Amino acid sequence: MNTQVISSDRPPFELHSDDRAAIEHDMTHYADPRAASIDALKIVQKRHGWVPDGAIYAIGEVLGIPASDVEGVATFYNLIFRQPVGRHVITICDSIGCFLTGYEDTVAAMKKQLGIELGQTTPDNRFTLLPICCLGACDKGPVLMIDEDTHGNVAAADVAKLLEQYA
Amino acid sequence: MSAVSANAGELRPLTYRLKIGEPLLDLKAFEAQDGYAAMHKALKEMAPADITQVVKDSNLRGRGGAGFPAGVKWGLIPMGPDAPAEKYLVCNADEMEPGTFKDRLLMEHLPHQLIEAMIIVGYAVQAKHGYIFLRGEYIAANERLNNALAQARAAGYLGQNILGSGWNFDLNVHAGAGRYICGEETALINSLEGRRANPRSKPPFPQIAGLWGKPTVINNVETLSNIPHIVLRGADWFKGLSQGKSTDSGTKLYGASGRVKRTGVWELPIGTTGREILEEHAGGMADGYELMCWLPGGASTDFLLPEHLDLPMDYDTIMKAGSRMGTGLIMAVDNKQNIISVVRNLEQFFARESCGWCTPCRDGLPWSVKLLQAIERGEGQQGDIEVLEQLTRFLGPGKTYCAHAPGAMEPLQSALKFFRPEFEKGIKSSV
């Protein structure tokens, strides 16, 4: 059985001074600092690859809002990762445009090549494979992103070569 | 008007300056092609009310899919000395409707066109600040918009006392972190405020109480991108752009995807037929494929059949045919697809993207997926089709805070209407 102990102890986390400055800068764009919560989560994630528990408290302090509110936001948005991911995150579109152009074959090739299912990370921590909704490039289906790069017309046969580019 | 040179801009205002493969137009190059001319005209020669009036007269309707007249929307914003000092303008650039890839084109290639538009609209409603709510995955658009914003700021087009008008305005890009529901305008406001993107009850409408409770105008990228051209060339010119193909005004970014010969986006007179888009511009279906049915403008629009291809693609005509023009980008479903699988994929999308706020949507959408999966496997039970039909009513308009669930029911209800025998094939015969 997997029991989770809710503890009042705050997990150790030190917000990098550059990140704090970046969050404080983004706060100036808004009438209410809370509006920078998504920016803040993205800033932390950029450095750590994901958002550790302690960062939730640290962000709450900078923005002046409860950690529970930050967690509510962090768990709502699919591009915020609340658990560790691989060095490269593959997000593959499974919406109708890519469905019609055969994304299922691409996903199958991806799973076979990496030896993982959607939602998993390879044992060598190199790739995490996630589904995503329409990437707004339906003219080039099947479409996927690896980190910040968008790749179109990715047939099953192209998968191995494409992944080689990401060490 | 005579100062404006005759060029392709008079026929294809949104895209005539867009040349794929050539360097991005910086501020100077953009200005050499009439860029920011409408902003100068608006801020120096026009009162805010004049701008709203010319847009009302032009009958520009919302290009995000709903088709609400833009000028009428702005007309609901409180104006004058008693109006709240803080008002906001938001560009909905959260393009995530499956099948839609038009706003990406405008933002990646003509960021200054959108910024000029937002300055004009900001002035028209006397907004204090504007935001471009951009989906997080649009990396290139984010970078290019931010570069263009820096150029506009340096030129004095954003900031204090713009062009000596006495009006202050600045703009920021707010990049999101995923979730389709953010495109719903009240969910977008919650997301922009740094909250979970659950929709809000309407009324009050955002024009009265939007971002931080202040009057807020929210318009789509394509809608806004039309504004400088309307200001520069007038309402009558804009009305004429449809070339008699429709009672609607302007051009429209139409497109096609699926198994067609040439996928893409094309700026055409509004009211161009589905047939012209699919057969002339997209070159017809790819070899070996035939058209089974099509979604006129995104996942949340009802299927239409090949027999509907000769209808003009405009808001009212497509509505009368039982669907919606939506975003106007056609998704061609070919004859090698199993329609049940297609609908199952669509409903899986909507089920996953439901924000979970309203019970019919949160529980009804996964239920529809379960039933469709069973029918897809040929394991449907007697009564399953009737339950699906019931769901199209339970999840229909008026049952939930926003249009997510009703939108999800559009492809399902139309598939049931047009392809009922395919559903029946998936039901196990009674023993």
Largest sheet of chain B: 4 strands, parallel
Shape of chain A: elongated
Structural class by sheet pairing and helices of chain B: alpha/beta
Could you give the distance between the termini of chain B? 76 Å
Secondary structure blueprint with pairings:
The complex is a heterodimer of chains A (167) and B (431).
Chain A: H1 17-27, H2 37-48, H3 53-63, H4 67-74, E1 88-93, H5 96-100, H6 103-114, E2 127-132, E3 144-146, E4 149-151, H7 159-164
Helix pairs in contact in A: 1-2, 2-3, 3-4
Chain B: H1 27-31, H2 37-45, H3 48-58, H4 70-75, E1 88-93, H5 103-109, H6 111-124, E2 129-134, H7 139-154, E3 170-175, H8 185-192, E4 216-220, H9 221-225, H10 227-233, H11 235-240, E5 251-258, E6 264-269, H12 274-281, E7 291-295, H13 315-320, E8 329-334, H14 339-353, H15 359-376, H16 384-394, H17 404-418, H18 420-425
Parallel strand pairs in B: 1-2, 1-4, 2-3, 5-8
Antiparallel strand pairs in B: 5-6, 7-8
Describe this structure in words.
The complex is a heterodimer of chains A (167) and B (431). Chain A is built from 7 helices and 4 strands. By secondary structure, chain A is of the alpha+beta class. Chain A is elongated, with a radius of gyration of 18 Å. Chain A starts with 16 loop residues before the first helix and ends with a helix. The longest helix of chain B is centred in the C-terminal third of the chain and has 18 residues. With 431 residues, chain B is an alpha/beta fold. The interface between A and B is large, with 43 and 56 residues.
